[in-house]
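Morning - pyridoxal-5'-phosphate inputs below, output right after.
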Amino acid sequence: MSAPRLEIDLDRIEHNTRTLVDRLAARGISVTGVTKAALGSAAVANAMLRGGVSALGDSRIENIEAMRGAQIATPMTLIRSPMLSQVERVVHSVELSFNTEWSVLARLSRAAGRTGQSHSVLLMVELGDLREGIMPGELADMVHSVLGLPNIILLGIGANLACHSGVVPDHNNMAELSALAESIEQTFDVRLEMVSGGNSANLDWALSTEDTGRINNLRLGEAILLGCDPLHRRPLTGLHTDAITLVAEVIESKTKPARPWGAIAQTAFGQAPESAGCGENARVILALGQQDVDPAGLVPPAGIRILGASGDHLISCRESGESSVGDEVRFGLNYSALVRSMTSPFVRKVTNSPSNEYPGLAVL
Ligand SMILES: *Cc1c(COP(=O)(O)O)cnc(C)c1O
């Protein structure tokens, strides 16, 4: 089989999903399965659905359209604020979108009116990570305006932490979100059906607190796909961390001098030249590079140490065992490596589904 390729074990993704869905259900929290790191793959989406997610979420309308094209009828959430240039497509394919801007909400309302359907929105609140969100002090005004919009249903509020500034979801910021929900309900005499607390980084908080307040939804991608907690990148108990692996092929294996020779200037990607070296061991080159993956996010198998990567060559050191030309090497991935390899047209994606194909993969 050709390399490089991502091997996606759908049973493990299903298991990871079910484990998290069950643990969170015990705390009154539903799970929206986030498919963006899998390029909106229908195979991955269906594995999440078998594992019990109540809805699917993606940040890109293209991925949602691909899943709709693959006959997935589950409620879909656009978890990034819609582009003004895409509001028609959003209203057409998505039941619920996350929003922070009045101009977008007004246009969603008009677009929904033209289709004769209503569109649900969730207002994102800024709780300190300084990515998306309405400032808490401005939320009530926005709610007031949104409640006056025809064809728009205010489903709830939500927040996203940890992604940009690494702010940890904790008792304080989650209690603030709960209090905002209560205050909106009292002020406007409405019921907020969904209070979506955050992403995989919220698991630490959600699974360790007795009182999750009004939070009744989380949006999970990384924890399901990679089995780890993004705050500390530690494996989550009972989850597979190898549901997705990257296989690459050896194209050169030679013993070479420990140090480069000649005058030294910049490298292809401007990184510092290799510092640790390889000593007396074989230097093994794999047909894998910056165009395929974030090399810094690869986890090599025992006996192999990564020395560096250019666009198309991954240079490694064989510290024990042997590698010959043509051998395959299997790597674990962090989120950055996963996203880069998923979006690289050079990396084949295969699943262990019966057809061994990858439905829903956008053509790149
Ligand atoms: C990406 C994203 C998620 C999912 O994040 P993970 O860390 O992969 O669980 C949830 N919410 C929003 C708004 C996102 O952009």
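Note: Residues 34, 36, 59, 79, 160, 199-200, 219-223, 230 surround pyridoxal-5'-phosphate (CB under 6 Å).

O.
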